[in-house]
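Exercise 3.2. Students should predict the tertiary structure of the chain below and write it as structure tokens, then compare their answer with the key that follows.

Predict this chain's 3D structure.
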Amino acid sequence: MNSVTLCQVRYRVTRFQGMMEGSGLPIPGVHRIEGSVEFGGNDPREWIGVPLSLKLQDGRVLGITLVNSEGRILSEGHGPSRCLSC
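Answer key:
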């Protein structure tokens, strides 16, 4: 949060790629990330709805939103190459 590490968590994420109907081709940059994090004793209620970054074990960073105090996370929209209207 704001470049400050809040805590270490165990996580599970699934990334879904947006696809064009009919052709089955992927829509570049359109995706949805769903998953969960385990906070291990930390109280995450103040982080619900706040834009957060989840740093993965391999070093990649995902922008996420904590949906509830059970640790459900969600992210929708464009990938690294955002369109000019976003």
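Discussion points: DSSP finds no helices and five strands in the chain. The longest strand covers residues 26-38.
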